[in-house]
Write a structure and sequence with these properties.
The structure is a single chain. The protein is α/β, with parallel strands linked by helices. It folds into two domains: about 210 residues, Rossmann fold; about 90 residues, Rossmann fold, CATH 3.40.50.1100. The chain contains 13 helices and ten strands. Strand 4, helix 5 and strand 5 form a beta-alpha-beta unit.
């Protein structure tokens, strides 16, 4: 998959019909803390509080044109993808059936329902819920929305297009990896713009499928993916995404639960922004890389701020949420 600047601009124009571009700020408090110039891309400032909303807009626009008889969509999520699909599908007059694992975020589930989704709990993790969503979609004649699709990625890539157009001389960009749409969007936008920015993928130490797959040069599933950074809680890698980030990322790094919790605290204390686990993971990785990034111009993607209240209180009290 490749994107041109024209592709990115066309996707951006479509996205901006429903939301404005999000800001990117260089925070001096983070610069003082980390010894480098730190830009934050605030995808926590979208209509759903996360970057996925962009892909929902572009995917549903494509779906209604490619399958004009579609009556609804069915997908699986840990919350942010589901919000984006429910929001866009409902606006287009479609139904949205969303599968989540048992024990999923209470507040993300409520948000999906508020956007018009029917939310069904199934299985113990995202990948199990995904298989059931795909089965039900086929059985009920609904359009399947996979976690990675070219028409999702071209929407998601618009945040990287905004960031890299505004700050084209970034040395390094840190981005979390779940199923891969975010990091692939960053790589595709960078390449389309002809920039030299290095892109570092970030995974939880408890959900390393992307890192293991890159290192092995093939798809490597894991037995579990238990992390409170639920946007990265993926056991099964996506081949199409691996083909992009396996070649386009400089490296993939892991962060601990404790490091992610500390990054959430740093975001709140230094910028007064809320970050969910996956949203804080890039900052956690940069904090680990402080010496390596000294004096450089660096960006981190705050991909979402949808953290449940009880988890946030646990984190701000110095703890780590149990999963």
């Amino acid at each position: 998959m490749k994107l041109t600047v024209a592709d990115l601009q066309a996707a951006a124009d479509l996205v901006y019909g429903q939301m404005g571009p999000t800001p990117q700020y260089a925070w001096p408090t983070l610069a003082d803390r980390l010894g480098c110039e730190v830009w934050v891309k605030h995808e926590n400032h979208t209509p759903t509080g996360a970057f996925k909303v962009r892909g929902g807009i572009t995917f549903i626009d494509w779906l209604t044109k490619a399958q004009p008889g579609a009556r609804g969509v069915c997908t699986a999520t840990r919350g942010n993808h589901g919000q984006s699909q429910a929001r866009a599908a409902t606006a287009a007059g479609l139904t949205a059936k969303i599968y989540v694992p048992h024990g999923n975020s209470v507040e993300k589930n409520a948000a999906m329902r508020a956007f018009g989704a029917e939310v069904i709990e199934f299985g113990d993790d995202f990948d199990t819920a995904k298989l059931e969503a795909f089965r039900v979609a086929e059985a009920e004649g609904l359009a399947t929305v996979p976690p990675f699709h070219e028409h999702l990625v071209r929407g998601v890539a618009t945040y990287a297009y905004e960031l890299l157009t505004a700050v084209p001389d970034l040395d390094t960009l840190y981005v979390p990896i779940g199923c891969g749409s975010g990091i692939c969007g960053c790589i595709l936008a960078r390449d389309a713009l002809g920039l030299a920015t290095k892109i570092v993928g970030v995974v939880s130490e408890h959900a390393q499928t992307a890192k293991l797959s890159v290192e092995a040069g093939r798809l490597v599933e894991t037995n579990s993916a238990r992390t409170f950074a639920d946007g990265m809680a993926v056991r099964v890698p996506v081949a199409e995404a691996l083909a992009i980030y396996g070649q386009g990322a400089e490296r993939i790094v892991t962060v601990s639960e404790e490091a992610v919790a500390e990054a959430i605290r740093v975001y709140y204390r230094d910028t007064h922004n809320l970050a969910e686990g996956a949203g804080a993971a890039p900052l956690a990785a940069l904090m680990q890389d402080r010496e390596r990034m000294a004096g450089k111009k660096v960006a981190v993607i705050l991909c979402g701020g949808n953290i449940d209240t009880d988890w946030f209180l646990t984190v701000m009290g110095g703890g780590v949420p149990a999963v």
